[in-house]
């Protein structure tokens, strides 16, 4: 895609990681964008020179990945990027109740994400994994109760936190494929989200590169790719 003044630029590693929800939201909103993907080297060095060579040359207030450039606006922090895009399309909630639910979910789901991140960083992964799986149903039950009979996590209106929540639940589903089986409303939420035409088309376009992460009992991409590379940005 050739860049124009109206084309956003999303910068991130050439992986799924923290940019997956952002990419899905950009696709869903028909936003004109191009990507700058940085490649991280293989183990054990994980050469990050592609990013480090330009990190402090992009005029970012807090140089980091992911970043979004939209004309004069330059944004880092993945959730700040999601909110920026969502505001342009009225996807942050309408009523005060919806906005409160969005604020809660935005932060709660990131806390949940970080539990899996810390586990996958750990050198004691196999030792700690049973403990994570033991507490996982309790965590998911909270999200299930919060969603209740609503279609989306803010209520009946689709907001950016649904993109974020889908991504995190999907990572856990890949980590433990049966983890959502006890929660019909969470499974229905996942199916409902995946059935959105633009999301379905985007997921299909990705093929196996980003859709398949699990090998045996642990996501190989999470364990050795996405999270470790993102940690060393």
Fold and architecture overview:
- The protein is α+β, with helices and mostly antiparallel strands.
- Helices cover 54% and strands 10% of the residues.
- A four-stranded mixed sheet has the order 2-1-3-4. Strands 5-6 form a two-stranded antiparallel ribbon.
- The longest helix is centred in the middle third of the chain and has 26 residues, at 96-121.
- Mean pLDDT is 89; it is low at 211-233.
Short description:
The protein has 233 residues and is of the alpha+beta class. It contains 10 helices and 6 strands, in the order βαβαββαααααααββα. Helices cover 54% and strands 10% of the residues.
Write the layout of secondary structure elements.
Elements: E1 8-13, H1 20-28, E2 33-38, H2 49-52, E3 67-70, E4 73-76, H3 78-88, H4 96-121, H5 125-147, H6 160-175, H7 184-194, H8 197-206, H9 208-211, E5 214-215, E6 218-219, H10 220-231
Helix pairs in contact: 1-3, 1-6, 4-5, 4-6
Organism: Panthera tigris altaica
GO biological process, one term: glutathione metabolic process
EC number: 2.5.1.18
| CATH fold type of the largest domain | Glutathione S-transferase Yfyf (Class Pi), Chain A, domain 2
Number of strands: 6
Query: How many individual domains?
Result: 2
Count of alpha and pi helical runs: 10
Main pleated-sheet profile:
4 strands, mixed
Comma- or semicolon-separated keywords:
233 residues, Glutaredoxin, Glutathione S-transferase Yfyf (Class Pi), Chain A, domain 2
